[in-house]
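From the shared-data thread, chain only:
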Amino acid sequence: MKLITSGFIVSCAILASCSTHYYKIHGQEVTLYLEKHQAKDVSLFCSMDDFQSKKVTKQNGVWEMTLPAHKAFKYFYRVDGEIFLPSCPLKEKDDFGAENCIFEPQK
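Structure, as tokens:
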């Protein structure tokens, strides 16, 4: 019983700290989704506008931002004041040694 309880507590702790990042394309737009439930403030920085900060809105517990999907762009998040790079399939090092996610439109 002790082993089951310990496993349950560890699983809950892992799930609580994890985040999920995904996107959906709708015509000429892409919506980025970030499931980071404990976050209080999320901003997106994107190469489309020279990495100007954009406030991300929370809808039904998920942070969302819709952008044009006609060309590739690089991006990262700031979550509660800290830079956050989600798990994303395409990444690239930036000029400062950090990484950015890359969105590639479907062809």
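Residues 1-17 have pLDDT under 50 and may be disordered.
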